[in-house]
């Protein structure tokens, strides 16, 4: 009897403390200091409106007033940090080679037309600019624009060189970097802990485990950005009639577990920004902001800008 009362009061105490700290995390953790907030994030510079990851795309997004450029990095054979998505050049340029096997001077231009990964049956026709840029070009052209860098290969030289560029261009407070791989994020953090990192995929799973057991409010976090997909958009990318019942169930489950306002509110109160990718429809923009996401990554920066203006979505203070 006595033991039961003891267990009950301990459990109640834990649940109440966890609930209180979930709502008011700054009672336990110092809020991380954000040097920028991003509502409007241009995915690969806005892959639906210009050729992905080109200077023309970045210029267009910055001219529109985007809060952040999202881009991907690789290393060429002569160890130049270039901005491009795939490790292999076939899809984007038609050349049968890996970026790491050609020098910067040998890199081919992009094809005239590229598929938009997160928009079904959509191709983007490019303008004049088909060049694969250097990361340095982006830093020089947009010295004040925050950049989200996806480190696409687990290569120590790449990580070191990106950090050197970030330092050289005085951008430690304008950068977030990482990858879905936890190994890469750990290396990034070790290389330069002053550059904020995002949650790797294994860390997202851990985060959910902590959240659903009520432990999250007690645990310190090194990451400053949660960047996650909205699983429900899979049904738009695939033909829903061709998804099996179990695929649909998994999608629903992932969406239900991941898209939690209580989780997003807790993280943002701790100074961890929440970005949802890659959304191209107004109903999804609306859902992300309703859930308390800090920002949205889109292939269509003009569309997201119109939406944000029309709905008066202001930046948090
Ligand atoms: C990193 O990339 C460079 C250039 O592509 C290559 O020479 C080097 O072997 C790579 N290092 C590792 C550890 O993969
Ligand atoms: C993370 O890095 C791996 C290589 O280690 C790469 O294949 C993958 O595309 C990257 N993923 C993301 C989401 O950047
Ligand atoms: C970045 O922000 C921190 C915290 O405010 C500040 O101490 C530091 O000087 C800034 N670094 C740069 C390079 O501006």
UniProtKB/TrEMBL annotation:
GO terms for cellular component: endoplasmic reticulum membrane. Keywords: Hydrolase, Lipid metabolism, Membrane, Transmembrane, Transmembrane helix. GO terms for molecular function: phosphatidylcholine lysophospholipase activity; phosphoric diester hydrolase activity. The keyword Amino-acid biosynthesis does not apply. It catalyses: 1-O-hexadecyl-sn-glycero-3-phosphocholine + H2O = 1-O-hexadecyl-sn-glycero-3-phosphate + choline + H(+); N-(5Z,8Z,11Z,14Z-eicosatetraenoyl)-1-(9Z-octadecenoyl)-sn-glycero-3-phosphoethanolamine + H2O = N-(5Z,8Z,11Z,14Z-eicosatetraenoyl)-ethanolamine + 1-(9Z-octadecenoyl)-sn-glycero-3-phosphate + H(+); N-hexadecanoyl-1-(9Z-octadecenoyl)-sn-glycero-3-phosphoethanolamine + H2O = N-hexadecanoylethanolamine + 1-(9Z-octadecenoyl)-sn-glycero-3-phosphate + H(+); N,1-di-(9Z-octadecenoyl)-sn-glycero-3-phosphoethanolamine + H2O = N-(9Z-octadecenoyl) ethanolamine + 1-(9Z-octadecenoyl)-sn-glycero-3-phosphate + H(+). Pfam families: GDPD. The chain crosses the membrane at residues 6-28. GO terms for biological process: glycerophospholipid catabolic process; N-acylethanolamine metabolic process. Residues 38-308 form the GP-PDE domain. It is found in: Membrane. InterPro entries: GDPD-Related, GP_PDE_dom, PLC-like_Pdiesterase_TIM-brl. The keyword Transmembrane applies. Belongs to the glycerophosphoryl diester phosphodiesterase family. PANTHER family: LYSOPHOSPHOLIPASE D GDPD1, PHOSPHATIDYLGLYCEROL PHOSPHOLIPASE C. This is Glycerophosphodiester phosphodiesterase domain containing 1. It comes from Myripristis murdjan (pinecone soldierfish). The lineage of its organism: Eukaryota, Metazoa, Chordata, Craniata, Vertebrata. The gene is GDPD1.
């Amino acid at each position: 009897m006595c033991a039961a009362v003891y267990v009950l009061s301990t459990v109640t105490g834990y649940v109440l403390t966890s609930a209180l700290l979930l709502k008011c995390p700054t009672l336990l953790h110092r809020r991380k200091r954000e040097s920028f907030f991003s509502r409007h994030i241009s995915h690969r510079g806005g892959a639906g409106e210009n050729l992905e990851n080109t200077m023309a795309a970045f210029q267009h997004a910055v001219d529109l007033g985007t809060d952040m450029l999202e881009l991907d990095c690789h290393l060429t054979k002569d160890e130049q940090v270039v901005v491009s998505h795939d490790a292999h050049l076939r899809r984007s340029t038609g050349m049968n080679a890996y970026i790491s096997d050609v020098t910067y001077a040998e890199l081919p231009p992009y094809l005239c037309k590229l598929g938009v990964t997160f928009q079904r049956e959509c191709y983007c026709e490019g303008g004049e600019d088909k060049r694969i840029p250097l990361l340095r070009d982006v830093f020089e052209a947009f010295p004040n624009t925050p950049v989200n860098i996806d480190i696409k290969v687990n290569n120590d030289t790449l990580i070191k060189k990106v950090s050197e560029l970030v330092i050289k261009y005085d951008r430690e407070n304008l950068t977030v970097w990482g990858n879905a791989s936890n190994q890469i994020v750990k290396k990034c953090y070790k290389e330069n802990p002053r550059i904020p990192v995002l949650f790797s995929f294994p860390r997202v799973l851990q985060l959910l485990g902590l959240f659903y057991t009520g432990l999250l409010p007690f645990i310190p976090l090194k990451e400053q950005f949660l960047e996650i997909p909205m699983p429900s958009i899979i049904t738009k990318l695939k033909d829903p009639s061709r998804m099996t019942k179990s695929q649909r169930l998994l999608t629903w489950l992932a969406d239900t577990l991941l898209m939690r306002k209580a989780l997003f509110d807790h993280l943002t109160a701790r100074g961890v920004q929440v970005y949802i990718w890659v959304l191209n429809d107004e109903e999804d923009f609306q859902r992300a902001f309703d859930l308390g996401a800090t920002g949205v990554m889109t292939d269509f920066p003009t569309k997201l800008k119109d939406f944000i203006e029309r709905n008066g979505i202001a930046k948090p203070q």
